[in-house]
Amino acid sequence: MSHILPVSVPPELLPLASINHAAILHLTPATIADLDQLVMLDRQCFGQLWSRETYVRELDSPNSEILIVQPASHGDRTSDPCDPCHPSRRLPSQTPEHTTEIATPEPIAIGYGCVWSILDEAHITILGVHPQHRRQGWGEVLMYGLLAVASQRGLTRATLEVSCQNQAAIALYEKFGFRHAGLRKGYYSNGDDAAILWKSGLQHPNFVQDLARWEAQIHTKASRSGWHLAIASVPTSSVQTPEPSEGHPPLALD
């Protein structure tokens, strides 16, 4: 993965940081168990771009991969008593006559991205980071993951559209080697033009080296910031043409 900039621990994850030597975050393929988190991120990043049903369809499609960055403690709260969100770790009130419990804050997903496999091309359709966690390097984590998925699936090049007004996102994509290839006038609902970006060489031996370098940089910088970033392997799938979805958003990174 590429650069994660040094960040302080977000308030939502302080319980993790205080209990573990390093707060654990996972970059992993999303499953149906993450549906609520994906819908929440969609609302926070794009104001409801895709419907809940669309996310179900994307999760079910062999030609679509959604990656999500979230705390390791997200999911089942009942099986592990060492989990800071386990009921046994809730703090009782200091006043004896009150038995109300104070629950540990619920960790939330930080960001997500989606890539389609179309023939030999990777179409990056969504990349969003929760507003509370932007400008902290998570967009680079997700971009690395999406390009790694594309390479593992045998795709040769990647493309995306981005608002010409979103200079932070454009700078990120250029850092990963994307180049401008065209323009779609008035592409977005607010009238913004979309820049069409392409990156080739995903099966070139040098690209494997690039992926290894980006991943090493991310692990190092995450560790310096008190994080342990766990990267799940992504199974490859057969490359087919997916069903049309509901359009590409202006990617939410800045």
How would you characterize the overall build of this protein?
The protein has 254 residues and is α+β, with helices and mostly antiparallel strands. Helix content is 28%, strand content 24%. The protein has six helices and ten strands; from the N terminus they run αβααβββββαβαββαβ. Strand 6, helix 4 and strand 7 form a beta-alpha-beta unit. Helix 4 runs antiparallel to helix 6. It is globular.
The strands making up the biggest β-sheet line up spatially as 8-9-7-6-5-2-1-10
What average pLDDT do the residues reach? 76
What's the helix count? 6
Low-confidence stretches: 1-22, 75-105, 236-250
Q: Report the β-strand fraction as a percent range.
A: 15-25%
The rounded Rg comes to 19 Å
* Record field, number of beta strands: 10
Question: How much helix is in the residues?
Answer: 25-40%
Distance from N terminus to C terminus (CA atoms, Å) equals 19 Å
Gross morphology: globular
| Element-level helix/strand string | HEHHEEEEEHEHEEHE
Query: Biggest β-sheet: count, sense, barrel?
Result: 8 strands, mixed
